[in-house]
# Entry
Amino acid sequence: MSGKLTPPVTKLTADKIPEYRKERKPTEFGGCFMCHGLFVKADESLGCSCQIGYYSDLGNIARMDMGEFFNGPLLNYIRDSFKEGYEPFEMCSLCVSRTIKYLEGDLTHSVFLHVEPSTNCNLWCEICFCTDERKSTNPPPRVNLPYSSFEKMVHDLKAAGLPVGTLALVGFGEPLFNNDTPRMASKTRELFPNAHIFLDTNANFGGRRAKEIANCGLTEIRLSLDGIDQESYVGYRVGGNFQKALGFVQCLVREIRETGSSTRAIWKYILFSHNDNDEQLRLAVAMAKELGIEIVFDYTVGARASTRTPEEIQAIIGTVRTSANLDMEAQSLIARRLAEAREAADREARAEHSEAQLADALPVSR
Ligand SMILES: C[S@@+](CC[C@H](N)C(=O)[O-])C[C@H]1O[C@@H](n2cnc3c(N)ncnc32)[C@H](O)[C@@H]1O
Ligand code: SF4
Ligand code: SF4
# Structure
């Protein structure tokens, strides 16, 4: 236990919109995930995306009509706030789910459905709410999203004429801890044949799990392997076994081929300072080729993030794709604003300190 507490959950409700509106601050951002998406936590509640709003609760998917909710007052308030140049809630000023540009098109006609199948995990990566919660002094129970609630939600959306454009089966936890994750993908494929459906996994499982997901309607399986050997891998993937993950990938690739599945397996390699030297990057590209899968290098933020420039990385990996979970342009703006705020606080503290020194030096009048 770390001695830290898992934060309490704050409810965000439509009846408080007049209060939120009064507190709104201008924004430099164009929008955020919630303008076009729903983030469903494994405990059936709706978070305000998966970042600073993870501990917000916008409602329960089992108790609401999700079609009505998606085009209801709370999400329209968020969309309208950004359009009018304001951040909807006070917490938004720290949110990394914001994007520079407003999301184009009619945001009320198709859904980006982000679903957290499980809050359980077999690894202990440092920058993950799942790790923080398990190490906290008040760890919440580890839960799996019930399939019945998932099914009700996608039927609600279908009945409301709201196609799921994307389904992301990933949250803070390992999706393969939920036995029903493959069924969630196949149900969504059945209802929304054109949906882009993907799953992220740490791949620390045996062949049975690989076979279950190889041909269940997923467009893409993203395999989180941030390294080329045990040493570089556990720098971030604490408790993970690189060889086991590699065995899982081999089994998955074989099963995809043998079943004629259209699912793409992708090696997702997050760039940290412990796994980004020239030799490691070149070897990763060669290993991916041998495995017969695409590799994508992902940028991240935080103390462990690679400090190499995209140009340096690109010069080594050549035509290989790079990407990021977050809008990196927005992340640099957030980092700049945080640095400015810190500098302003330092300046204020220094000014107060000099004032106090001056007051001490002055003779006390009687
Ligand atoms: C929180 S994980 C949950 C899914 C699964 N357990 C896994 O690790 O792939 C969701 C996604 O976040 C990515 N991720 C984990 N730590 C990250 C970090 N520090 N920066 C950026 N992405 C990260 C993972 O690689 C994965 O693609
Ligand atoms: S910017 Fe605000 S409304 Fe949007 S996801 Fe973040 S916390 Fe929620
Ligand atoms: S494997 Fe995924 S869910 Fe588990 S601790 Fe790491 S990032 Fe979090």
About this structure: The two ends are 55 Å apart (CA to CA).
